Amino acid sequence: MDSYVLLDMGSHTNALFYGIIQIMNSSTESSQPQDKIIASLQANMAQLQSDNQQLKQQLDWFKQQLFGRKSEKRLSDDTAHPSLFDTLKPPEDNTPKETITYQRRKSKQRADECVTEQGLRFDAQVPVEIIEIPAPELQGEGAEHYEIIDHKITRRLAQRPGSYVVLEYRRPVVKHKATQTLSTPSAPTAVFDNGMADVSVLAGLLIDKFVYQIPLYRQHQRLQQAGITLSRATLTNWTQRAINLLKPIADSQLQQVLQSKVLAMDETPIKAGRKQKGKMKSTWFWPIYGENDEVVFTWSSSRGTAHVEQQLKGFKGTLLTDGYAAYDRFVKNKPEVTLAQCWAHTRRYFFKSLKVETQAAEEAMQWIGELYKNEETIRKKQLTGQKKLDYRGKHSKPVVDGFFKWCYEQHQRIDLENTNPLSKALTYVDNHKDQLCVYLSDPDVAIDTNHLERTLRVIPMGKKNWLFCWNEVGAEQVATIQTLLTTCKLQDVNPYHYLVDVLQRINLHPAREVAELTPRCWKDKFEADPLLSDLARLGSDLHPLFKASLASRV
Q1: By three-state DSSP, how is residue 89 classified?
Q2: How far apart are CA 552 and CA 554, in angstroms?
Q3: Residue 503, class by beta-carbon neighbours within 10 Å (0-12 exposed, 13-18 middle, 19+ buried)?
């Protein structure tokens, strides 16, 4: 950093030294040249101070990114409240306990390693659950004419929370005593034809990778430790095929979201695909948040307006965003779309100027803080519609007008240079006045995009674990699965139960009614009686939600 500072300030420093030498060499009789030199030196000094201030700001920013906290919350020095650790006591666990046991079938074939016809390998430590499939010939009239001469075995890998189990389907081979013909019942259909993956393990892979951010290579290590031998390519293939089945549901959800009157939109970077040897391309996810608490992640290789135009085609209503210029270009010549501005992004500019203009920045954040206090009161009183609009007009509009007046007065300061962070914050407010006022005239428009930014955290959290997407197709698949899983969280839907049901239902559900499988609609239509995995039907996957359902079915 020191060398960078000297390089940046070198020209002004040389001019300063040159001016001093000129003064020393000039005659005392001629004062005019010295006056000019002194004026030039003063100008150079002012420029050096300005450059020095900018470099300090850059250095502070880098330090903040490397070592500081990322939260913009203002810390309080209030010591009147006792420490959390002085009063915190571990809660007593009075939950009744139960002991679960099971018997495991031993087989000579599994002495060292079992290789099934599908290529599934597992050792003796892996538990096996046997599912007996009855032969219809042995039931009802004429059953005495048949006898069991053997069993056919079909094995599939299944998953309990935190462990794995192999499901073994024993299908009797039945021979008719008179005709000597053989028959056997078919194994239950799997998500993939002739696949060795139970729906529970497919759902578990997706949940672990995209909800808990566990990369596939770590899941592969966990499988190996559990005694399961599978290639990482197999896990990748299962993940991709499962997401491809879910893509029509995500596409349908996008169409539902575009029917909203108010949308929030943002963008976040992701490395996807190779730009050249050793380098990944910079691409972007564009999450879109609808008014029914549904979010859709779209992906683009660029950050230009073209993607916004493509995704929001046909949208009519209010678009709530940050100050990115692509959204301004999108709404240009579109009278059916109103652009609203996020107040949290506005506050962020003043927060960045705290160290340089502490007093002014504090005052600005106090103005904005009053607006958020009013929104908190609205939430507590549960005001909606016209009542919410009236409250904002009575309490928030005077604050907004006062804040804009204060910003104008600050902008008139002669000591405020254009490079000053406060000047940038004031310019930002001046450029977005109309958009910042939209929420005052529409009760359905939020004061900020924080609800959207909370949902897109799954992308930066994922990047810290899986770093990037190897190709652009992988980035599109991440967008598809995060669309559904993040919406499950917003709708308070258990994502594991949702995936287990939908992955089994998708191939049987009418294509024209695919919207029923989006998390919000699925919650109303199928959540009360979802399709279970074979492992759950055995009662081995003891989720409290399913216990009552299983008991009622039995």
Answers
A1: coil
A2: 5
A3: buried
